[in-house]
Amino acid sequence: MKYGYIIGVCSVVLASLVVGCGDRPITVREACNFDPTMCSDLNQDNWCNAERRQLILTRYSHKMNPSAESKYYLLKDLQNYSQCIELASAIEHKKLKEKQSHRIEAYINSLRNIEKRAQETRQSEHPLLLYWHWANRNNQAALKRLLALEGAPIMQTSELQFALATYYAKENTDKMLAYLYRALQLYQPGQRFNVEIPESLATYYLNQGSVDKAYVWSLVAVNFKSKVLDVEQLDDIFTQPDERKEQLRDIADRLTDRITEGRFNLRPDWSVPTN
């Protein structure tokens, strides 16, 4: 892993919950120096850099504030890293075989860590963890408890509205769409953004034949660093005239700004509230 050179020495004090030097976020190197176990079980070559970086920062955040929410994101990032390193471990390194074996070891470690965290959280009543155990372990009892909370105030977060949308994707597409838009409305600056929300909207509209909306939400997903979409791919899929595409890009950029700033207020019919 290539880390940027850090000028000066940053002292991390656990008791005061300092997240970095001064007001800036902690770096990956600082997190690894603070607690080497956050990094020692991961691969050390250049594969899966983004997934590894996010996992390390989430591990650090969880250590500083071990909440149910941080446990959920730790499981989520462990999975993302595991899926990436599984693919990388199958790629043979012709010159340095030990690099391939390190990736295999990292993959095995990730599976152990996921199972450990899954066992630790399987009795949790927090809706984020109920959602994880349903979505990833097909735990129907967890799903039942999650749906029982559907209208509760605790569910009024962007991530949990998306969780409900995933359930209703096969049960009720109108409710799915409403929850996806509500997820965007509830997003606040500084929170983790789930790029699966605009990706899901793009898929929905494409399946409905609403190609303009599908293109707009695909572009929004790209703006939020989608790993499954890119601009060249979109140009191959969508065949609107260039002038129309430019108009749709402007819409996508405005929507991206609204979401980023916590000002998104579109409804599924693309109307806006009048009060």
Give the SSE layout.
Layout: H1 28-34, H2 49-64, H3 68-89, H4 97-121, H5 127-137, H6 140-148, H7 158-171, H8 173-186, H9 196-208, H10 211-223, H11 231-237, H12 242-260
Helix pairs in contact: 2-3, 3-4, 5-6, 7-8, 8-9, 9-10, 10-12
Counting DSSP E segments of at least 2 residues, the number of strands comes to: 0
Mean pLDDT: 89
Task: Say what oligomer this is.
Answer: single chain
Q: Mind summarizing the main beta sheet? A: none
State the helicity in percent bands. Answer: 55-70%
Structural class: mainly alpha
Shape: globular
Low-confidence stretches: 1-19
Q: Termini distance?
A: 51 Å
Topology as H/E string?
HHHHHHHHHHHH
What percent of residues are in strands?
Answer: under 5%
Number of helix segments?
Answer: 12
Radius of gyration: 21 Å
Description:
Helix content is 62%, strand content 0%. Helix 10 crosses helix 12. The N terminus is likely disordered. 29% of the residues are buried. The protein contains twelve helices and no strands. It is mostly helical and 275 residues long.
